Amino acid sequence: MEKLKVIFHVNNSERWETALGNITNLLKDVGDDGADVIVLSNGPSVQAYADSDKVDKMKTLAEKGVVFKACRNSLKNLCAGGTVCLNEDNLPEFVQVVPAGITELIRCQAKGYAYVKP
Questions:
Q1: Is 13 in contact with 45 (CB distance < 8 Å)?
Q2: Is residue 111 packed enough to be buried (19+ CB in 10 Å), middle (13-18) or exposed (0-12)?
Q3: 68: domain CATH number?
Q4: Of 1, 76, 88, 106, which shows the fewest CB atoms inside 10 Å?
Q5: Euclidean distance between CA atoms 30 and 22, whole angstroms
Q6: How far apart, in whole angstroms, are the C-alpha atoms of residue 98 and residue 95?
């Protein structure tokens, strides 16, 4: 069977639990090797990378091959806004930073990734 390709778009902090649950359920259904899963976070959702409970759940999924990507523009805006200041140096080691989340979403969809917004 062909490996599924999916990108989960999380731009709202309140949607993380749903997204992580969706990914867990997907991998239970198709197996850890049955899907190529990317999670793209932008907007205020990047704050979740400072939440140790969420990071623990993300790390478990990352160990199963899930790729987490954060928007650099959102990280800069978050830091400038005076809330949690995250950047490439203090993000969890499994998080990749992309220049612009919107561009990454478009690239992944052009490569055939299904778009899911929990």
A1: yes
A2: exposed
A3: 3.40.1260.10
A4: 1
A5: 12
A6: 10
